[in-house]
Amino acid sequence: MVRISVIAKVWIEEDCIVCDACQDICPEVFQITDETSQIVAAVRIDGQFDRNIGGALLKANFGAEFAEYIEEAAEACPVDIIKFEVVGGAAPVVEEAAAPVVEEAAPVAAAPVAVAPVAVSAGTSDALAAVFSGDRALMILFGSQTGNAAGLAEKTAKLAANYELAASVVDMDGYNPASLVGAKRVLIITSTWGEGDMPDNAEDFWQGVNSSSPALAGVNYSVCAIGDSSYDEYCKAGVDWDDKFSALGATSVQEIQLCDVDFDEPWAKWVKSVLPRIACVDGSGLFQESLVEEMSAYGEGVDDSVSSGDFTPGTVIMDEISVTIELFRYCPSAAESGWDTISCSVPAHATVEDLLIAIQQDVDGSLAFRRGINGGTPTTGVRVNGRIVLADIARISDLIGSSGNLKIEPVPGLPIIRDLIVDLSGYEAARARAEPWMKADPRDGARLLSGAAVGTMDAAIATQLHQRGDILSYQLVQSMSDTSSYDKAYEGPGVHLQQWLRAEDPRCGVEQRNNILSSLNETDGVWAEADLSSIARYGFDGKLAARGLNDARAHLLNTSNYSGKHGRLVKWYGRSVKWTGNVNETTLYRQVLGPLGLVSNIFNGVSARMVLGFTRNGGPPIRGLQGLLMPPAGVGKIPNMINSKVDAHHEVVSLFNEIDKRF
C-alpha cells in the first residue's frame, strides 16, 4: 500500500451496518453511534459531529497524521461507505498482494474518490476552470451582539454559491483558533460592542487567537466591520481582526470595509467586490488576482440564466398603472419636513423600492431610503397608505387604493434620520439589553466541544416554535406600537416578542427564562403597550406578534396567581362575568374598582341595566338604544361617573380583547 500525504476530507455514505471496524482502526477520526459511524468533531474545521456529507475539511494536521489509518478504515469497511478526498484530488492506490512495494517507486494514482464536479459555464477560460477544480471551501466567521453580523454572514454564504464556493457560516463562540490553520479562504463579519469591545460571542475566540498565535501564512481573508460612527472606537473589533490576521501572516484579498449603523449598502458594496476576489484563491491557496475580472463576470452572470421546468414559478408581469405619490421628506440640516407630490406610470408588479429607486434616479437624487439586499430585508420598512411593509418586497398593486394614490412615509414610532430612513439604534440598544439570544446552560443535552449545551427539541415543538416566530422583520413589529411614540422608556413589541419566543424555546436555560419573564413583567415590559389590537391591525406579522404578546401576558398572569394590578383586574372581571352571566362594557369598566365596585353595581342601577339588557350582552338591538337614552346608570353605554374613575383603562380593554371580540 502506498502512503498518501494528506487527506482533505472524509465522509460516511448511507447504509452503515455499525460494525465498529472503522472505529477500531482509527478512533481519532471515526466514532460509532447507535445508527451509523460519524466523523469526530475535533478533526474537522467546522467542529460538527455527523457523517460529514457536507464535505467539511479536516484540519491540516489530522489530514496528514491519520491519512494512512483513514485509508485502512475505508478498505476494512465491509459495505464500502467510507469515502475520502486527497489533497490534489487523487485517492490512494492499493497494489496487488503479490506485487512487492518498492519504496523509491512513485505512487500510481487510481480513480479518484467520487466528488461532485463543478459545472462551469461554457466559455470559461482554462485558467478559471483550473481554479474551480480544486478545494472551494470558504469559512465565514461572524461576531455578533444583536444578530446583524450573523444575518449578513448568512446572506454572504448564499451569494458565495454564485462563485462556486462551498461556504460555511461559523459562529466565533466556541470555535477553536487552531482550526484556522489550513483554511485557505476566510471572511470575517463582526460588529463592535460598547467602547470598541468584541461582541460577547467573539471574546473567547479573540483571546484564544491572541494567546495561541496560529500561523496563518496560507490564509486569504477580508473583514467587514459594523459599528457606530458616533463612538470614538468606530468599528474597532473589525479593525483589530484585520490587524491580527495580517500580523499572523494571512493575505488580505480586499481591504477592510467599515459599516455604520445603516450597514446594508456598504456591506453590499464589500460583498460584491470580495467574493470574486476570494473565489480566485485556487486549491493550493494562491490568490490568482489576474482572474478577478473574469470571476466577477462569471458570478454576476449566474442569475441571468432562465430556469425552466414544470415547477418553475412564472414571471409576474403586470400592466402599468398611473399613480399619484405623496412622498414624505425630511431634511435634518434645515430641520424641515414636508411632502412631495409626484405623478407617474409604473408597472403594477413593481415593488415600493423599485418606485423609490426610479424617483431617486430620475426625479430627485437626494431622496434617502434604505435599500434591500435579497428581498425581505428587515430594515427596509416604510408605511404606505397606512400599512407598514418592507419596501423591497411589497408590490404597488397590493397597496394602491382605488383613487390611484400612494402615500409613502417613514414607519411610525422611531426617530427620523432623513426622509424615509429611521433611527434603529434605540431598537438595537433595547434588544441588546433584553438579550434574547440563546443561553442554554445549565441544562441537559448534547454539548459542543467547548462544553456549551445545545439541548434537543421534539420536531413538533420545533415546528410550532417556528410558526410562532415566522416574522419577516422584528424592526417592523417594533414600529407597529402605538405606545413607542409616547413612552421613550418602553422597550417595544419587536424586542418583547423575541424575548417571549426565546422563553418558549425548550432549549432555553432556566435562569435565562426566569430573567426574561421578569423583564417582560416590569414597568417597561409587555404591560406598557396601550392595546395589542393596534399591532394586530398590521397584517399577518402584526396578528402573529399580537398573539404572541397576548400569550406572554396570559402566562405572566397565570404564573403570578393573578396578583398585582393587572391580575386583580382580570380576577374581578372574571368573577363579575360569572356572577352576572353578562359580558359588557359596564361590567368591564365597573370591575376595575374591585369588590367594592361590584357591590356598588347593586345601588347605582348597573345590575338593573344588565337584567334588562340595556348593554351589549347579546340582547335585542332596541335595548342598546334604550341604554343610551335611559337612566339610571348615566347617559351612554360607558357612564362618565364610572369612566372618570378608571386609570389606564386601555390596559383593561387589551386584556379582554381575546375574551370578547366585541370590545
Q: How is this structure best described in words?
A:
With 663 residues, the chain is α/β, with parallel strands linked by helices. It has 5 domains: 1-116, 2-Layer Sandwich (Alpha-Beta Plaits); 129-302, Flavodoxin domain (Rossmann fold), CATH 3.40.50.360; 320-422, Ubiquitin-like (UB roll); 425-443 and 468-559, Alpha-helical ferredoxin (Fumarate Reductase Iron-sulfur Protein, Chain B, domain 2); 564-656, no CATH class. It is 37% helix and 14% strand. The chain contains 25 helices and 17 strands. Strands 5, 6, 7, 8, 9 and 10 form a 6-stranded parallel beta sheet that branches. A 5-stranded mixed beta sheet has the order 12-11-15-13-14. A two-stranded antiparallel sheet has the order 1-4. Helix 15 (493-504) packs antiparallel against helix 16 (510-520). It is globular. Mean pLDDT is 76; it is low at 88-119, 302-313, 580-586, 613-621, 627-649 and 657-663.
Tell me how many strands there are: 17
Number of domains: 5
Mean pLDDT comes to: 76
Q: Structural class per helix/strand content?
A: alpha/beta
What Rg, in angstroms, do the CA atoms define?
31 Å
Distance between the termini: 82 Å
Q: What is the architecture of the largest domain at the second tier of CATH?
A: 3-Layer(aba) Sandwich
CATH fold assignment of the largest domain? Rossmann fold
Per CATH, the class of the largest domain reads Alpha Beta
